[in-house]
Amino acid sequence: MPVVGLALGGVDFSNLGIILADRDLYASAAEAVAAGAPVIQYGAFINTVINFLLIALVVFLIVKAFNDMKRRTQKPDEAPAAAVTTEERLLGEIRDLLATRKDVP
């Protein structure tokens, strides 16, 4: 988070929150948490989401680089012979039979 905080001008999301009771007594959500007051800390959620997205991006880039490297180091395989399935063979036979019929214009 220091990099994100630096990019955003030193903003620290962990101190963001909504004080649910006695808002007048506390100057910030951090003081309310320290005093044990009920606080919804949405800043911690924002930090967690940003951390997750950064880690996911890094993992994605690592996997992508690995797959590119793997593809470059593999020898190009010969083109596999076209395997004719049973369905294709039967359709070909039907086509040939229809082509040889004389009563079809």
Concise summary:
Helix content is 57%, strand content 4%. With 105 residues, it is mainly α.
Structural topology:
Blueprint: H1 2-7, E1 18-19, H2 29-35, E2 39-40, H3 42-73, H4 86-100
Antiparallel strand pairs: 1-2
Poorly predicted tracts of residues: none
The major pleated sheet works out as: 2 strands, antiparallel
Distance between the termini: 77 Å
Shape: elongated
Proportion of residues in helical segments: 55-70%
Write down how many β-strands occur, each being a DSSP E stretch of 2 or more residues.
Answer: 2
Our Rg estimate from Cα atoms comes to 33 Å
List the helices and strands in order.
Answer: HEHEHH
Which structural category do the helix and sheet elements fall into? Answer: mainly alpha
Describe the structure.
The chain contains four helices and two strands. The protein has 105 residues and is mainly α. It has one domain (2-100). It has a two-stranded antiparallel sheet with strand order 1-2. The radius of gyration is 33 Å and the shape is elongated. The termini are far apart. The model has no long low-confidence stretch (mean pLDDT 81).
